[in-house]
Write a structure and sequence with these properties.
single chain, about 650 residues, alpha/beta, Rossmann fold, 4 domains, binds 1,4-dihydronicotinamide adenine dinucleotide, binds 2-oxo-3-(phosphonooxy)propanoic acid
């Protein structure tokens, strides 16, 4: 952006906005064409000609008045069509316009809509945004007695090439004027000298010649407001905030984050530490799944990072403390794939009990091996669940419903569901269980939780399931226990070393062993779970970016916040040390700011203060807040 106003104290400018593809996502004539032509046999041909004329006019290739006339001739519009579009036009507001309603409400008397479009269609949008009818400069349609459109009022300058400049000039605005528009007829206003600054608006459509003729490109209204120091002042524009999503995160998340105006980049696979260090500069939010390690080194290189979102349950791949130390919030989706893991664990248990996988593989080789030897029912067998959290306890319920007896072991006190019995040690569980299923989290101290000694303590012929984390099981020891027949079978979904993408090779000592099912970390990989995760984690990210809400953060104090309605919201993350709140309030009081609402929440290491204040502030205030000893991060929302 290089089109900033000459001085911060300059008078607030008049803001002139184009309508089609700027205030709304559509081109009026294209939308009308769709309506008129919905039943015409020549629809496609006519629609193409109308869209082509619109494009040519907007790119400055043909005369605007001529293009308008030709499009109206092609279309045979009626009043009913125009009214129908006016009825639904509010649903077409451009996202950044919709979310900046407050800017319009507060500046309505300085906003002018100048458009080659039609007054009837623009009127509902102007009313919604609080722009008075006399500040809407637009074309007037002329109808015949039967309500057919016969043309536009040619006395209105907007019906002609260059008409926007003429109409705006006639207003004689007393002060600087900025223009936001997407078309060549907007660029012409800049060339005619009737506006001081022209922003080529590219949220809906990007036209190269228009961008080239503009003072700056604006990918959203927020960017203009930011550059001009209008409403919200230093709240950073969303379109310039970069969200990087790795590991094939579900497109629903991408869509949700883009809808809210953020810039989103995606990568299919995970990145190793060095590659991530390369990519992390300039990234405001990083989205990962289980495979990307967000280490202290990565966080060190992250110059702009505000949040890391794990689009999964486990967060052992993120250095949560190092993140909190930098005021970087971490989130996950703790319940969205729980059920998927549980269903797979049940299915795998049946499959192991009946030796289905080896029997099936034999049949694919042409061998018919009908036998009951070693095949058993689930009913009446004892399932030992290690880690009775969300997944473990849900598995407990389903397993009991299938007639299994359930025992569990957890390091913390957990409510035993149904008839499940809590055991006081892992060893006690191993001694009793016919099937051992691991559902602990991936904390480092769980490395090799199941090693040679633990396998030796399992009941001979018992089965092992690991759908938690690869490092929880000593794979070499498991291979031995399987080889010796001590463990009769295993289903393993997670591995100490997992390929970063589907194109990378997999290798493991478990390959080729009898009654061993290997799955490529798909416990949470169902369509339902991935959609639910995308929705949940994206909402956590949006809550944090848009409101400062840290609900469900796994490393910062959780504070649930409503939208910012009036004034400004100051967000201050700091080390949990004495005197920070007092210092913040002293700075705010010295600046004469009235605090409308304030929250403070701390955990052992970190404090989070949110202050909603009721008036504008001086930039010096920001420096003072950042300078408070212990400050980790500070930001402002409006
Ligand atoms: N295979 C896959 O695709 C998936 C794997 N997971 C893994 O499953 C893990 C568990 O998920 P949730 O049940 O949602 O987590 P959770 O946090 O609700 O439960 C984990 C439980 O394990 C307990 N625990 C930790 N260490 C223990 C130990 N040494 N001995 C006994 N108990 C111990 C904890 O106290 C807690 O109750 C996740 O952390 C993740 O690593 C989660 C989803 C999908
Ligand atoms: O949710 C978890 O913790 C998982 O292990 C699932 O990981 P994924 O998203 O499939 O890489």
């Amino acid at each position: 952006m290089n089109a900033s106003p000459s001085s911060a104290s300059a008078a607030a400018p008049f803001v002139v906005l184009d309508f089609d593809s700027t205030l709304v996502k559509v081109e009026t004539l294209d939308a009308l064409a769709d309506m008129v032509l919905s039943e015409s046999v020549e629809a496609d041909a006519i629609r193409t000609r109308v869209a082509r004329l619109t494009d040519q006019a907007m790119a400055g290739d043909i005369d605007f008045g001529e293009a308008l006339k030709r499009r109206l001739e092609l279309l045979q519009l009626t009043r009913t069509h125009v009214e129908a579009l006016a009825d639904r036009i509010l649903g077409e507001l451009t996202p950044s316009v919709r979310r900046n309603g407050r800017f319009f409400a507060e500046n309505a008397d300085r906003i002018i809509i100048v458009s080659g479009g039609f007054r009837e269609v623009i009127a509902p949008v102007a009313a919604e945004l609080g722009v008075a009818p006399e500040r809407v400069l637009a074309n007037d349609l002329i109808y015949d007695d039967e309500g057919r459109v016969t043309g536009v009022d040619e006395a209105n300058p907007l019906s002609r090439e260059g008409g926007k400049a003429e109409a705006l000039k006639a207003l004689n605005l007393p002060g600087p004027v900025i223009l936001i528009g997407d078309g060549w007829n907007d660029a012409v206003m800049k060339q005619a000298g009737v506006v001081d600054r022209f922003y080529a608006f590219t949220e809906v459509v990007r036209r190269e010649p228009v961008v080239a003729a503009a003072d700056a490109e604006a990918r959203s209204l927020d960017e203009v407001l930011h550059a001009e120091g209008l409403s919200g002042r230093w709240s950073f524009p969303r379109s310039r905030m970069k969200i990087l999503l790795l590991e094939n995160i579900h497109p629903l998340a991408v869509q949700r984050l883009r809808e809210e105006g953020y810039s989103v980049e995606t990568l299919k696979g995970a990145l190793d530490e060095d590659a991530l260090i390369e990519r992390i500069r300039g990234v405001h939010v990083l989205g990962v799944r289980s495979k990307t390690n967000v280490s202290a080194r990565v966080l060190e290189a992250a110059d702009k990072l505000m949040a890391v979102a794990a689009f999964c349950i486990g967060t052992n791949q993120i250095d949560l403390e190092a993140a909190a130390d930098r005021g970087v919030a971490a989130f996950n989706a703790p319940y969205s794939n729980t059920r998927s893991v549980v269903e797979l664990a049940i299915g795998l248990t049946v499959t192991l009990m009946r030796d289905v996988v080896d029997k099936s593989a034999a049949m694919h080789r042409g061998a018919w091996n009908k036998s009951a030897t070693g095949s058993r029912e689930l009913r009446g067998k004892t399932l030992g669940i290690v880690g009775y959290g969300a997944i473990g306890s849900q598995l407990s319920v389903l397993a009991e419903a299938l007639g299994m007896r359930v025992v569990f072991y957890d390091v913390v006190e957990r409510l035993a569901l149904g008839n499940a019995r809590r055991l006081r040690s892992l060893d006690a569980l191993l001694a009793e269980a016919d099937v051992v299923s691991l559902h602990v989290d991936g904390r480092q101290s769980n490395t090799n939780l199941m090693g040679p000694q633990q396998f030796a303590r399992m009941k001979p012929g018992a089965l092992l399931l690991n759908l938690s984390r690869g490092h929880v099981v000593d794979i070499g020891a498991l291979a031995q226990a399987l080889g010796s027949g001590r463990v009769a079978g295993a289903a393993v979904d997670v591995f100490p070393e997992e390929p970063r993408t589907n194109d990378d090779p997999f290798d493991s000592p478990l390959m080729g062993l009898k009654n061993v099912i290997l799955t490529p970390h798909i416990g949470g990989s169902t369509e339902e779970a991935q959609e639910a995760i995308a929705d949940f984690a994206a909402e956590r990210v949006l809550g944090y970016l848009n409101r400062g809400d840290t609900t469900f953060s796994v490393n910062l104090p959780n504070v649930q916040l409503a939208d910012v309605t009036g004034g400004h919201r100051l967000l201050h993350i700091h080390r949990n040390q004495a005197g920070v709140l007092a210092a913040i309030n002293r700075v705010l009081a010295d600046a004469g700011l009235n605090i409308l609402a304030q929250h403070l929440k701390t955990d052992e290491h970190t404090g989070y203060v949110i202050a909603d204040v009721d008036r504008d502030y001086d930039r010096a205030l920001l420096a003072d807040l950042k300078a408070i000893p212990g400050t980790l991060r500070f930001r402002i929302l409006h």
